[in-house]
Amino acid sequence: MEKTATPKKGTLRVSESVIVTIVKNTASEIDGIFKIAAKPISIKSLLQSSADPSDIKISMLDGVCKISMSVITKSGYNVISVCEEVQERVKAAVQSMTGVTVSKVDISVVDVSFAPEK
Prior knowledge:
The chain is α+β, with helices and mostly antiparallel strands.
């Protein structure tokens, strides 16, 4: 699942793992996000040493990207406001850094952390 462009100088490909990295870093910087949720462990993921444990899915269709992710929020923050900020900032970051159009960013809040801040 790559975005491919053919500029005058050659072919350019942006891999799905690049988009996942941008999403992960952008979301982690937002106040109110404790961390990106990890996907359930499976035998397949144990065998793939380079498997990314974060629960971020990228779907590409006709050069347009749809992002789905699961997060754990911090207590004391408005979950709706935090998730709306994640959606806006992730979409902007992916589009500006890769040139890939993002149609939507779906977020599932899977937990709330009550851990004290460090």
